[in-house]
Design goal:
CATH architecture of the largest domain: Distorted Sandwich
Number of strands: 31
Number of helices: 2
Largest sheet: 9 strands, antiparallel
Shape: globular
């Protein structure tokens, strides 16, 4: 027999109605437990984003300024990590009508903290895979005699033996373990000072690198300065030999530049350099010692306005730079996004420009470096490979400026 529903006020008094009522009461009774669980995900993400104040055991530093021009792009912030060798984590620039755009290809601070504080290697190798890490006392690769355990290698400079971490290797069976990208990826910075300057802010810190944990000669202090203004972000490194013997020194960095359109194929790059270092392939990427002219090849990126990347792979080193007005200027232009960025090398010690641009990724890394890859390698013969010799008390400086523009 079908029950007829009889309602009293808002309640259904049939057996079926009572069952529905009991189910509703059960659901209501679970809400105090369910709500925290349902809300935990977004709240956790928000909490992490809001509470990331330290990376590498030191407080992060953010330089900031408000955009004031409604007709041209201006830089608005730089975030960096003194606890990770003063690595630049994020740079933003305001484009009128578009708002703030991330100049560096980096995740949010919560993900960066997880990458650098939780997932990273003992050597800090994940640091040069996001943002812009400083590479000292050598950018790029160094080959040598591998130790029995595969953890270190030895090479020679002017009769001195250097023992370096063998922290990188390619993917193929023929890959050779080698040292890469310097020794300050996990360095701590002291005397971090932020000050206001006309139109922006500036931060300076000192890394007392000494002998780079036993891997280098003499003792070194690094003074790193980052300056934020409307027109540019300046990154400056001074390396000073504060020890008692001579040492080799080279400086560079590794900025991953974002491509706002997400269409890497139409992005154009201009590199004002006429020669390319031949390599043994894109797995080891070891130089052969030959410098080849780029004219007539896909590596000729000298044209005004740049050359489209297309689907080409690049992990290459250009030299014989055309300095204009004492500057080595590389341009990355994203026409679909009406976006452009310049990286301007201002130190005459800069001898090469490395570009890393894999076709499957939406970024371009442009690295102004003092040196060629494998600078101690015999393949170069007697050529000057860009390593500056610092005698006790001497110093060398590296300076690159970043600018943004509407092409």
């Amino acid at each position: 027999m079908r029950h007829q529903r009889v309602r009293s006020g808002q309640f259904d008094c049939t057996e079926e109605g009572w069952n529905e009522m009991k189910l509703l009461l059960h659901v209501l009774s679970l809400l105090p437990f369910a709500l925290p669980i349902l809300m935990a995900g977004p709240l956790l993400v928000m909490s992490q984003a809001q509470t990331v104040t330290e990376i590498g055991g030191q407080k992060i530093v953010t330089l900031s300024r408000k955009a004031t021009d409604t007709t041209r792009p201006e830089f608005t912030s730089v975030t960096l990590a003194p606890g990770r060798g003063m690595e630049l984590l994020q740079i933003t620039a305001n484009f009128p009508g578009k708002g703030n755009i991330d100049v560096l290809a980096s995740p949010d601070l919560a993900e960066i903290k997880k990458t650098l504080d939780v997932d990273d290697t003992a050597n800090g190798d994940l640091g040069y895979r996001l943002g812009s890490a400083f590479l000292v006392p050598y950018p790029n690769r160094i080959r040598g005699k591998l130790s029995a355990d595969g953890k270190t290698l030895t090479t020679e400079w002017e009769g001195h033996t250097l023992t370096l971490p063998a922290n990188n290797i390619g993917k193929l069976s023929t890959a050779e373990r080698h040292a890469m990208h310097g020794l300050i990826l996990k360095a701590k910075t002291e005397d971090v000072t932020v000050k206001d300057i006309p139109g922006g802010q500036e931060v300076t810190g000192v890394i007392h690198a000494r002998d780079f944990n036993g891997h280098w000669l003499s003792k070194t202090d690094l003074i790193i300065t980052i300056r934020l203004t409307a027109e540019g972000v300046d990154a400056m490194v001074e390396a000073k030999n504060v020890g008692g013997e001579a040492e080799p020194m080279a400086i560079g960095w590794h900025p991953y530049l974002t491509l706002p359109s997400g269409d890497r194929t139409q992005v154009k790059v201009q590199i004002p350099a006429s020669k390319l270092a031949e390599v043994d392939g894109y797995d080891n990427v070891f130089p052969t010692g030959k410098l080849l002219p780029v004219e007539g090849t896909r590596y000729d990126l000298q044209a005004a306005g740049g050359v489209p990347l297309g689907s080409n792979m690049f992990d290459d080193n250009w030299s014989h730079i055309d300095w204009v007005n004492h500057a080595a200027t590389v341009k990355v232009i994203d026409p679909k996004a009406s976006y452009g960025v310049e990286l301007i090398g201002l130190s005459p010690q800069i001898k090469t420009i490395q570009m890393y641009a894999p076709p499957t990724r939406q970024f371009v890394a442009i690295e102004h470096q003092d040196n060629f890859a494998d600078p101690f390698g015999k393949e170069w013969g007697k050529m000057d490979t860009g390593m500056v010799t610092l005698k006790p008390g001497e110093s060398t400086k590296w300076h690159v400026r970043v600018k943004v523009f509407v092409p």
